[in-house]
Records
---
Amino acid sequence: IPQIEVTFDIDKDGIVHVSAKDKGTGKEQNISITASTNMSKDDIDKAVKEAEQYAETDKKRREEVDAKNNAENLVFQCEKALTDFGDKVSESDKAPIQTKIDELKNALKDNNPDAIKTKADELQKAFYELSSKVYSQANPNGAGVDPSQFTGGNTSSSNNSNDDNNDGDVIDADFTEE
C-alpha cells in the first residue's frame, strides 16, 4: 500500500504551497497556488477613489438603515409591552401610545428618515412616561431600590470609615496573559 504524505502551507500573502511525498520511493512533487487578480493597478486605484467618493453617501445610508431598524425594534417592544401590561394600564393611557406606534409605522412605510427619527423619539418619550407610571404603581413606596435588600457587601460608606477594621485579606498579584 503506497503511503503519501501531503502538506499544505499558506503563507501571509495567501499563496498555498502543496507538497506530496511518496514515503516508499522518496519521490516528491510541489505546487504553488496563487490567486490571480485580473485588476490592474489603475483599476485598483479607481476602486479606492470611488470608495472614498461615496463614503459620505454610504455613511448617510447606514444611519438611515440603523434608524429604520431601531424604529422597527421600538415598535415591536412597545406593542409587546402594551400587551404585557394588560389591565394594569387603562385604555385611555394606552391610546396615545398606540397612536404614536401607528404614526411611526406610517413613517416607516413612507421611508422618510427624518420623520422616522422624529416619530421614534416621540414614541420613546411617551412610552417612557407610561412605563414609569406602571412601575411606580407596582412599587407604591417609591421608585427607588433599597440597597439593603442585596447581600454580599456593605452598602453604606459610613461603615467603612475605620480602615483599621478590615474583614478581608487584600492580596496584590501580578499576572500575564498568554
---
Amino acid sequence: MLFSGRPGIAGDCTALCPLDLSGDGLGRDPNHAVASVRSGGSTVPRLSVVVPVYNEADNVVPLMREIVAALRDADLAPFEILFVDDGSTDATALRLIAATREVPEVRVIRHRVNAGQSAAVHTGVRVARGDIVVTLDGDGQNDPADIPRLVAHLNTSAAAPAPGLVAGVRVQRQDSAFKRLSSRVANRVRRWLLGDAARDSGCGIKAFRRDRFLSLPAFDHMHRFLPALFRRAGLHVVEVPVHHRPRRAGTSKYGLWNRLWVGIVDLIGVAWLMRRPVDVDFREVDPAAGDHTEMKT
C-alpha cells in the first residue's frame, strides 16, 4: 500500500483540518483523512519528535511527559512533539487532546481510519516543522532519555561521512520470547536478501533529517527497512545502543502474521527495490565552454 499523498490513499495527509472539540471530540470530518490539533506558538522548532500511536490510551500521557523532560533537560528547545493517532478506537485521541493543554509543544494528528504504523510515521514527518526528526514507538518501550544521544550523533561534525540516519539498537530487549524469535528470524532473512548489516532494523527510535526521509520511496511497512533505504540512497547509517523497557500498559498490535510472515513478504519487494539503479552520473552542459563538441549531430 503506497501513501504518497495522492487523494484516496490510506494515510493521506494532503489536507489538515482543525479538530472540532465539540460533541464527541474525535474530530471526524468526512472530507478529510486527517485531523490535527496544534497547541504550539509561532516559534519554528528545530527538532520534531514523531510518535505513531494506535489504541495506547494508557501510555500516551506518561510517554509525553517523559519526552518533554528529556528534551528540556538536554536543552533541545525549541521542539515539538507530534502524536499521530492512527484511527484509535479507545480514548487515545481524547487524552492527547487534553495533553495539549498541559504541554504547548504537543501537536495531535489523527488519521480518520487505521492506516498502519508506516503511514502514521510518514504523516508525522510530512507535517513536522523541524529539520531534525526523531521517531519512537507509542507503547513506551523506547526510552525518551536516549533521544538527546541520537540527535548528538546526527549533528556530529567529526563523523565522516556525516550520518543520514542514526538508528537505535535495543539492548536487553524486554519482549516476549516469540517477539525476540520472530525478530531474529526476520533480521537474518533481511540480511540475506538485502545484504543489509543493520543489527536491529525494527527498533522504533531513530533520528534523521526530514528532507532525507521524505526523499525515500514511501510504502506500507517502510519503517521496518529504514537503514536499508537510507543506504540505498547513498547515506551513511550509524547504530547506537539504546535502552528497551517492558510495555507498561495495553497490548501489542503485532502477531505472527503481521510481524513475521508479512515482514518476509515485504522483504521480497524491498529486495527488488534495492536492485533498481538510483545513481546516474550526470553533468550540466555549458554551451559557452564548448564542452559539447563530442556529442553526435
---
Amino acid sequence: MQIINKIYTKLVLVYNISQNKDLNKSKELAYTAIRNTIGVLLFLSIIFIQSLIDLFIADFKIKRSDFPIYYLYLGLGIIIIGFIYFSKVYLKPNLEYFPIPETKNPTKLKRYFTGYIICIALFGGLIFVLLRMLYIYFG
C-alpha cells in the first residue's frame, strides 16, 4: 500500500501543480487514475491467464453443450465485480496524501506522469504481443 500511496501522492501533485486543479479535485482524479490502472492491469492479467489455460490446459470450443467456457467467463466476471467492490471499500479510504516538498517542480511532475502512462502502455503492448506470439506458435 506504500507504493500505491507514493504514486497517489505524485498523481495528486501532477493534477494540482501542472494541471492547475484544486486539491480535492486532484485527489479524486488521482484515485480514479489509480483505480483504472489497477483495473487495467488486473484485466490484462486475467486475459493472459485465460489464454494460457485455453492454449495449454484445455481446448475450449463454444457450443450449446459445452458449459466449462461459460463457467470460466462467469468466474472472470465475478473477479472484476469483486475488484470494483474492493476499490470502493478498501482502496479509496486507505489512500493517503503525503505532500513531498522536493517534487514541486512541474517539469519533473510532467516527466513522472508521462513515464507512468508509458509504463502502462508498454505493459498492455507486451501482453498483446505475447498473446499473439503464443497463439501463432502454439495455437
---
Amino acid sequence: MAPTTLTLKEKIVYLEKIESRGSRSLKDAASGLGLPFATVRRIWEDRVAIRKSWKSASRKPNSKKTRVSNTNIKLTSNRAPNIKRLKGNENNTDIEKGVLMWYKDMIHSEALVTEAIIRQKAMQIAENLGLNTFKASLNWLTQFRNKNQVVLNSDDLISQEITNKNLQKSKRYHSQQEIRKNSNSGGNRNSLPSNIDHSIKSDVKELPSLSDAYAALATLEQWYLGNESTCQLRVLPIIRQDLRYLRCKGEKRKIQGGNRIR
C-alpha cells in the first residue's frame, strides 16, 4: 500500500493514537488505523517535527487548529475588545461634538478660550453624558485641536503681548543707538533729510537740534507706552518718522531706521 498524504492536523490526530497504542507494534497500529505501514512509520519518526510545526501553527490566528477547535473561543475573545473600542470612539465623538459646539459659541462671543478651559469643558460634558472613565488628556486635546482646526484666541493674545514687548525693546534699543550716533556727530544741522528715493525733502530746511529731537521722542515714548496696543500700532509711523530725522547724516543717505522697527 502506498503512503498516504496527510494534513498537519491529521498527522497530529494519528500521532496521538500511535502514542497511545501501548505495547502494540507500529504494524499493528497501522492495521488498526487503516493506514499504510510506511505512513505510520514516517509519522512516528517525524513526531518531534510534527509537534513543533503544530505548535507554531497554533499561534497563528488563521491556523487550522484555531478555525476547527477554538472557533467560538477566538471569535468571542476578539469581538469584545472591538465592541469596547467602537463604543469608546462613539463616546469620544459625542464629547467632541459638544466641546466643538461650545467652542464655536465662545469664539463667536469673543470670550477667552484656553487649553485648560477646553479640557475642563470636555470633562464637564463627559460627566453629563455619564462617561466617568473619560479623561481629557493632553493627547486628546492635541487630537481634538488638529482634527477640528481649533485656534485659541488666547494664543493670539500671548503672541500679541510678545510682539508688543519686542516692539518696545526694539524701539528703546534703536533709540539708544541713534542717541550715541548723533552725540558723536555733534548734531549736524546742515544735513538735510531725504526721501526714500533719495530726493531731498523740499519742505525741510534743516534738522531739528538734538535737544529738541530727544525731547520730542521722550514725550512720544511716554505717550506710546501709556496707551493700548491698537494705539501703539497707530503711532509707529510717527516714531519711524522722528527716528528718520535723527538717522539722517547726509543728503542722499538711504534711510534704514524705519525697516529695523518691526
